[in-house]
Design goal:
Number of helices: 14
Shape: elongated
CATH class of the largest domain: Alpha Beta
Number of strands: 10
Order of helices and strands: HEEHEEHHEEHEEHHHEHEHHHHH
CATH topology of the largest domain: 2-enoyl-CoA Hydratase, Chain A, domain 1
Oligomer: single chain
Amino acid sequence: MAASKKSTAKKRKYTDILYEVKDQVAWVTINRPRVLNCFREQSLDEMIDALKSTREDPSIVCAVITGAGNQSFSAGGDFYAMKRLNFQNGYMWNDRMLGLAMTIRGLPIPVIAMINGWCMGGGHELALWCDLAIASENAVLGQTGAKVGACPTVGATQYIPRIIGERLAREMIFCARRFPAKEAAEVGLINKCVPQKDLLKETLKWCETMKGHSALTIRMTKKSLNFESDNLYSSWQQGMELLAHVWGSEEAAEGMNAFLQKRPPNFQKFRLRDKKMLADYLDGNARDLNAPPSMRRKK
């Protein structure tokens, strides 16, 4: 048995994450602290692989997803990865995001997001996919898509209204409102906020509690809890189609470049350009340019 476990571990060599099973808990740690644990394609593939591997060991009670270091759980997608996306290849990224979400939802064990520091954009969507979320007092949760030209449609638009209500969800998404951990706990965005020094200890308490509970019951009740929100799957699919139109757009490029260059984005130029294009279109209608030349009014 020990040899079998050893060989399984050897097969899984990761570059972007750390993975270990300790005391019947599977730990998945995004290990890219230099970029605030932003994830790229390889990171998403590795998280999917690591989490799916828990199915091979029925003694695993739960999984914990976290980020390396104390600064960030995950600041979302790596802009150097997302800047390469466009309508032709964007589905490769979108499918990975949906694949990780469905892996977390489909696991027969609870998945806990242990949040330290920044939990933004796609990183916050990752936390939303988890069954439980606990955060340290230094954590900040938010959706930054409107500021950087990316649609949070792979979880945020589906789950946030259900968790904190429509009005607050729209404010969070449209205004890119951030929630410090204490406020996030008050509105129900996370389960619990604890001092940073207690984050690991409190997470382990949850794991220990579940160790004493029926594995079969947890498996069945997770399926039951997922039932109603499983009906949101069509919204996820539509969300990915919408997101595909954003990847590679001029506005997405402006938002991400501005963030990397540490300057305010200039989205206003796109509004003014679109206003001019629409004015030209309406003027053409008024001048009969929407009719065959032989049928146009004579000046």
